[in-house]
Amino acid sequence: MGYMRGASALLWIVLLCGCAAGTPVAPSTLQGDVAHPAQAQGWVETKLYFGLGLADAASTGVSEQGWRAFLDAEVTPRFPDGLSVLDVYGQWQGKGQPAPERLRSKLLVIDYPDTPANRAKVEAIRAAWKQRSGDQSVLRVTQPAEVSF
Questions:
Q1: Which pTM was predicted?
Q2: Which H helix or E strand runs over 144?
Q3: In angstroms, rounded to a whole number, what is the distance separating the alpha carbons of residues 149 and 146?
């Protein structure tokens, strides 16, 4: 009787292992999408920092609705394949200011193929924000990126 119980347990283990071994595994990367390649070379990640207004005066500056309108009009048409936006808090000391300002801010993160056309799009976004907001600057940080979707 003990032999039959042990053989039965062994049969279940073999069957379960066989099922697991025969189960196809989905690839860890997206396949067949040119805009989102499984492996990419020559890509960069750009972070843009946008000041929305003084942290202690939430009713002034650019509203969330104003930010989204800017995103829809200036950013998304230039980089429709994807981007990220984070709410951040920052400080900025402009020319001639005696102390830094504490700011409500947005951090825009875009990963893209490093081409002159894409870099021009980034610069156009920065220029559009400065024109719209009157800000002196939009901080840009660009670094090489190893990308896989």
A1: 0.76
A2: strand 139-147
A3: 10
Range 76-82 contact pairs with CB under 8 angstroms and sequence separation of 24 or more: 78/121, 78/124, 78/125, 79/110, 79/112, 79/121, 81/35, 81/36, 81/112, 82/36, 82/111
pLDDT at 14: 47
Contact status, residue 91 vs residue 101, Cβ threshold 8 Å: yes
Total Cβ atoms within 10 A of residue 32: 7
Q: Which CATH architecture has domain 40-147?
A: 2-Layer Sandwich (3.30)
CA distance 71 to 134: 17
Residue 72 has pLDDT above 90, yes or no: yes
Q: How far, in Å, CA of 51 to CA of 134, rounded?
A: 10
Task: Please give the pLDDT value at position 28.
Answer: 66
Q: How confident is the model at residue 50 (pLDDT cuts 50, 70, 90)?
A: very high
Task: Decide: helix, strand or coil at residue 68.
Answer: helix
Residue 38 near residue 149 (C-beta atoms within 8 A)? yes
The predicted-structure confidence for 115-144, as pLDDT tens digits, reads as follows: 999 999 999 999 999 999 999 899 999 999
